[in-house]
Amino acid sequence: MTSLWDQLKDWVLVGVLLAVSLGVMFAQNQTLVRAMRAGALETTARIESAFAWVGHYLRALDENQRLRRENVALAAEVARSREARLQNQRLEAMLNLRDTTNFTIEPVRIVSKSLTDQQSTFTINAGSEDSVETGMPVIDGRGSVLGRTELVSASYSRVMSYLHTDFRLPAKIQSLDAEGIVHWTGDDRSRLSMERVVKTNPVLPGQRVVTSGSSGFFPPGLSVGFVDSVATSPGRNEYSVQVIPSSPLDEAGYAFVVLSAARSPEEAGEGPSLDEDVAQR
Q1: What are phi and psi of 275, to 5 degrees?
Q2: How far apart are the first and last CA of the chain?
């Protein structure tokens, strides 16, 4: 039986001689070598070109993810800058009001809001230790009415907002000096109702409504809102005026308590403090 080497030695010899021949041929024939290299380049380039979109697609996905992250970061930065600018504007308005008003006011922050269907209230971070008393007006940084204090503890006070069905405010149409009572009917949160305005007054949309000062605790001239529409009731000598509030309640974050205002007669007596009211609940 012949060995494996005896069976393969002829093929090995042929392979060696062929390799030597090819090496000599390539070494001596540069033109052939360049032609083969050019052919190989053409083939590989076509293959790479056909599949190049895969790499571009993957790189585009990575780039899109990076751009999304940057976009989110930039949007957050813009939102923070916008909020800081708005807060600075509100604080500047409060400083200007404090410098120009002719009555004593205490700056406060609104710490919570309870905007219910019929009895919207909010809580401020000032109480009896800050000279706040029941029935004092609360206004925003532009001097617009937000409500009045109804319950006072040492450090906090609860404010009955103008979006409360029990809230009543003597007011007047400033340009006409026509007085009436402003209240909320409990329906449209973007409108107040002004009643008891006699028909002899030429009431028109856009006229400013301010406090009349006849309540005894709201000083005159505080902005309430603007006339939106005027309606008449058959058989009555009065207008029913719809008023757009000057200060949207849901936008309020800071406010002032008017300390120089007296309490209303019905609130002059002793009442429960905010702490006692919470404890009873």
Answers
A1: -65, -45
A2: 110
Paired tokens of 100: 């120009």
The helix (H) or strand (E) run that includes residue 85 is: helix 30-100
Decide: pTM greater than 0.70: no
Helix/strand/coil percentages in the chain, nearest 5: 40, 30, 30
165 and 186 Cβ atoms separated by less than 8 Å: yes
| Residues near 87 by beta carbon (within 8 Å), at least 6 away in sequence | 253
Tokens 């030597």 correspond to 20
Pairing label, strands 137-139, 238-245: unpaired
> Alpha helices, DSSP H only, in 179-223?
none
Residue 236: Cβ within 10 Å count: 11
Tokens 């571009």 correspond to what residue? 56
Q: At 117, phi and psi to the nearest 5?
A: -65, -40
Residue 238 C-beta-side C-alpha neighbours within 13 Å: 11
Q: What is the spatial distance between Cα 152 and Cα 274, in angstroms, rounded to a whole number?
A: 5
As a whole number of Å, the CA-based R_g of the chain is 41
Q: How far apart are CA 118 and CA 163, in angstroms?
A: 7
Provide the pLDDT confidence category of residue 87 given band limits of 50, 70 and 90: low
CA separation for the pair 91, 57 (Å, rounded):
50
The model's pLDDT over 249-268, given as tens digits with 9 standing for 90+, comes to 988 888 999 987 544 444 43
Angstrom distance (rounded) from CA 184 to CA 166: 8
- Going by C-alpha positions, the residue among 122, 129, 113 that lies closest to residue 148 is 122
